[in-house]
Amino acid sequence: MKKKLNSGCAGLMISILILLPSIVNGQSDRAVTKKFLSELPKIRMSKTIQKYRMTAVYTNRDLYGNFTGKTMVSGDYTSGLPGDTAVWNNVYISASNNYLAPFPSGTKQEYMENFRYVPSGKMMEETAFKSFPKSVENIFARNLIWDMMSADIFAWNYYDSLKLNVPYIIPDIKGEFKMADIGNYSHSKIMLCWKGITEINGVLCAIIDFNAIDNKLEISTDLIKSKGTEQYWGSVFVSLKTKSIEHSDMYSGTIQEIEVKGMKDKFLMKTIRELSVEKMQ
């Protein structure tokens, strides 16, 4: 009887030891879920200086998928400066007609050197770009500014409204608006979704996805006119400690009818844009 009891106790202990890791892991999973995935933490945004490198690659093709050219735009962006200002430096634009070849060094956009402003809705006004030249490169440079502003908006403006895996439609960004003096853009809707947490640059971050489908785009300048549609999507990774952006990716697809001054016929073009924001400091 004593032997059987000892044997039974030994079996019970073995069962407990086998089950213990599962119990501990289950409790650990629930603790992680409760701490990080029940809601985004209430934190204040860091006011320290942040430095980023933004790179955007535009790949052009005809409607049959044949490559017609590519452009790379890059620049250094610094935020958190006195007066809530931000500044751009080292903005280069490079083009190539060879899909496989690396981009050449490109041309520095001197008008963007130390270009300083307060990120706000005023950057959609014509007066914000009065120092910019009237050229096609001007459009690419503006896109750097507007794309960085978009990352900021998606990261911060609706942070407190996001719930895990629940799509959130931005209520106050829709319809047509003017892109300063170069054209108009019309959003159908913009959707955000907090998808979880991850580690970027050794920092725990919230993953916030965004997408805007079925948008209309119209550009009108002295040199080029176009009409078309655009879809864009991507992710922004927001520090759960400082609320600063640690990284962002954006992708877009645009189909446009284009008219170039001096060319007899209009033509159709598809443009794929791949954009990344890398934190430097």
Described by strand count, sense and barrel closure, the largest sheet is: 13 strands, antiparallel
Secondary-structure-based class equals alpha+beta
Radius of gyration: 25 Å
Silhouette: globular
Give the count of helical stretches. Answer: 2
Distance between the termini: 71 Å
Q: Could you tell me the strand content as a percent range?
A: over 45%
Helix content: 10-25%
Question: How many individual β-strands?
Answer: 13
| Average pLDDT, all residues | 89
Low-pLDDT runs: 1-5
Q: Give the SSE order as H and E letters.
A: HEEEEEHEEEEEEEE
Q: What's the arrangement of secondary structure elements?
A:
Layout: H1 2-37, E1 50-61, E2 67-81, E3 85-96, E4 107-108, E5 115-117, H2 136-157, E6 168-169, E7 175-178, E8 183-187, E9 191-200, E10 203-220, E11 224-239, E12 245-260, E13 267-279
Description:
By secondary structure, this protein is an alpha+beta fold. Strands 1, 2, 3, 4, 5, 6, 7, 8, 9, 10, 11, 12 and 13 form a 13-stranded antiparallel β-sheet that branches. A hairpin with a 5-residue loop joins strand 1 and strand 2. The longest helix has 36 residues. The termini are far apart. The N terminus is likely disordered.
